[in-house]
Design a protein that fits this description.
single chain, 357 residues, Aspartate Aminotransferase, domain 2, 3-stranded antiparallel sheet, 16 strands, globular, binds pyridoxal-5'-phosphate
Length: 357
């Protein structure tokens, strides 16, 4: 059976060495030595000023909204994982959708501008499949209208744009370290910022609002454990190797698939990618169903990703006009892509797809 993704596991002996350290320190959580070591190594690896390890990529977005004091309208993308929109609604903000570009599938800056009202406080955009949004244009719009920018960079571990980490863009960027992502800590996530004041608040908010014995504010429990940090410390040194292997698979798909009948995202900015996903867009939902059925008959399970368009969720109150997202979400399919996916399996997947378009 071949799934869309398969979690990378380090050698169990490496993990055991860290578990022994945990037994020695007898500290399992509350910003222990392994969490501190992981945060330091992540900052060095990524080239970022602040990195806060938290329990997952969803709470990372929620904390970002809290520390920025966002309470009203947030312009966001309909083409992302549900966590992007759910975080907004959970924090009592109002998601206002701006449609995506049909080239990079990220939020379209022109459509952002069209949605700005006096209630708009922020932009929450996703770097879709690890491909960067138009970060320069979004920064310009945010400055002009005095808006905060949060990037859901859940897909972006190791991605560089304009020769710097993509996490350096926006007031705050968040990442997910879930087991399905390129770098993982089992469950986990991180919050990135370059702003000293925001960094101070993030650190407080993720830990009940504690400041010494007392409380600065209402916080949440967004901490992560020594065991999760241990997994991260085992996986991190292997990230270059993981990305290399993904790149070879990615390029093999590129060379084999029939591009006269398929569409894939186009990356516009100078980007060093992490090959996080291999999405294709079929010419219709019927074709998608046909291709998926043929793949499933071979025990191959791609994933509809992203589907559905978040603007169509029943708990989103406002009507939205996002025809591009609506159209592409029903025919998007992420193909299997993981560290040790066999190249012969990629050839089989590509031929099944090409024969059923
Ligand atoms: C994975 C993902 C999240 C959620 O991260 P968790 O760590 O699972 O909470 C949020 N946004 C996007 C775009 C994701 O892919």
């Amino acid at each position: 059976m071949i799934n869309v993704t398969k979690t990378y596991l380090p050698p169990i002996s490496t993990y055991q060495q860290y578990v022994e350290k945990i037994w020695k320190s007898n500290q399992l959580t509350n910003h222990g030595p392994l969490v501190q070591e992981l945060e330091k190594k992540l900052k060095d690896f990524l080239g970022v000023k602040y990195c806060f390890f938290v329990s997952n990529g969803t709470i990372a977005i929620q904390i970002a909204l809290k520390v920025l004091g966002i309470k009203k309208d947030v312009i966001t993308t309909p083409f992302s994982y549900c966590a992007t929109t759910h975080s907004l609604i959970w924090e009592n903000c109002k998601p206002v959708f701006a449609d995506i570009s049909n080239k990079d599938f990220c939020i379209d800056p022109q459509k952002i501008e069209a949605q700005i009202t006096e209630d708009t406080e922020a932009i929450l955009a996703t770097h879709v499949y690890g491909n960067p949004c138009d970060v320069d244009k979004i920064a310009e719009i945010a400055q002009k209208h005095n808006l905060k920018v949060i990037y859901d960079a859940a897909h972006c571990f190791g991605v560089n744009v304009n020769n710097t980490s993509i996490f350096n863009y926006g007031d705050i960027s968040t990442c997910s370290f879930h087991s399905t992502k390129v770098f993982h800590t089992t469950e986990g996530g991180a919050i990135f910022t370059n702003d000293d004041d925001l960094a101070f608040l993030i650190d407080r908010y993720r830990s009940f609002g504690h400041i010494g014995d007392n409380y600065l504010t209402i916080g949440i429990n967004g901490k992560n454990s020594e065991f999760h940090a241990a997994m991260g410390l085992c996986v991190l040194p292997d990230v270059p190797k993981i990305i290399e292997a993904r790149k070879a698979i990615f390029e093999l798909y590129d060379s084999l698939l029939d591009w006269t009948k398929l569409v894939k995202p186009v990356v516009s900015l100078p980007t060093e990618t992490n090959y996080a996903y291999y999405p294709i867009f079929l010419n219709s939902e019927e074709t998608l169903f046909r291709v998926r059925e043929k793949l499933q008959a071979h025990e191959i399970f791609p994933r509809r990703y992203f589907y559905p368009s978040l603007s169509s969720l029943k708990f989103v109150a406002e009507e939205s006009n996002c025809p591009i997202s609506d159209d592409y979400a029903v025919r998007a399919l992420a193909l299997p892509l993981f560290y040790d996916l066999a190249h012969d399996d990629v050839r089989l997947i590509a031929s099944i797809i090409n024969n059923n378009l």
